Structure formats: C-alpha cells, structure tokens
Amino acid sequence: MSAAAGLTAALRVEVLRGELAPGAPLREEDLAARTGHSRHTVRAALAGLVAERLAVAEAFRGVRVTSFADADVVALQQLRGALEVEAVRLLRVQHGTRWPDRVLAPARAAVAAMAGEPADDWPAVAAAHAAVHAALVAAAGSPRVTEAHDRLHAEMLLLLVHVRPAYDVARLVAEHDDYLAQVQVEGEPAVRRHLEHSTRLILAAREGDRA
C-alpha cells in the first residue's frame, strides 16, 4: 500500500468514526504536521477521500468532510433504492418468491452480525446495517449493480454515523429479518417501503439534532 493510500485509509476511519465532523476542514499543512507525511502525500490522500465522496473540494474553501442537506439525504436514499429494487427484481426472476438458503445466507449472516454489535457503538451498528443491504444486492449476481451500490457505501456510512435514528439494535435486527422475508414475496414495494421508512427516521433525527 502506498503512503497516500495508507493515509486515505487512516483518514477514512477518522471520518467514519465521527472523529472528524461533517464540514470539518481538512488542511494539507495541518495534516502533514499531524501525520508526518509530506504535503504531496496528504494532497493525494485527500483526493482519495474526495473520490469516495467522504470529502468535498471547493474553490477558495479547500477540502472539507462531506456534510448533507436534507435534499442530499433523499437523493442518496432514492439512488440506493433504485439499485436495491433492481437487485431484488433480478433475484425474483432467478428464484421466484422463495429464495434458496444459499442465496440468503450472506444477508442473514450480516443481520446476525448486527445483532452482536454493542448498542453503544453506533458506527459499528451502522456498518453492520449497511452490510445487510450490500449482501442482498450482491446476491443478485449483477457486477454492475453491485459496483454502483458499493460506490455509495462510504457515503451512506458517513450519513448514518452522524445521524442516529430512533432505533435500538434489537429493533433494527427484527426489521431486517422481516425485510428479508418481505422482499422475496413482495419485491419492489417492500424495498420502497423499507427505505422510505428509513428516510423518514433519518430526516426526523436530523431535525432533532438541529432543534
């Protein structure tokens, strides 16, 4: 791994653990002094974060950790939903309304992993939550759909890390157990209902944070 890639990975962890807040400036000079890397390496590392949409680069403002307006939340959820709808459609074409255990096993394992995360470690719960949906999309076997969904992974995690909806882990696990059952039988409506519910909770949590 190159020095720049290693620094990108380290900064990614800081961002996704909430140690660098949304909108926080990422200054080359400060990061070089803190990490001991050259400014050239820092610049390349920041470009990696921007490519992952964990940071934005703006003229005259430099690089900052990505922050979300409500419209960004809705748009991100809509795109995520479109990809998941297509994945579920493909799965229903392949397997009908009752999918084999081998197809569901990765998503079920991700739900079980989520159940094992400590309730007070929201970033870990959010990562496990995202893994359930990633496993479901991957099960469809479409490289393009999976690749497009994977590109949203870091951005979605960043959103969830900084906004904790009104969930406890047991409730989140139960909802996703139900979701894996519902998408087999209902297909697209179950996906849309699940993600619309998620969007409402995220927006409500953001409103509570602003109050």
From TrEMBL:
It comes from the Bacteria. Residues 1-68 form the HTH gntR-type domain. Keywords: DNA-binding, Transcription, Transcription regulation. It holds the Pfam family GntR. This is DNA-binding transcriptional regulator, GntR family. PROSITE patterns: HTH_GNTR. One of its GO terms (molecular function) is DNA-binding transcription factor activity. Gene3D superfamilies: GntR ligand-binding domain-like, Winged helix-like DNA-binding domain superfamily/Winged helix DNA-binding domain. The keyword Cytoplasm does not apply.
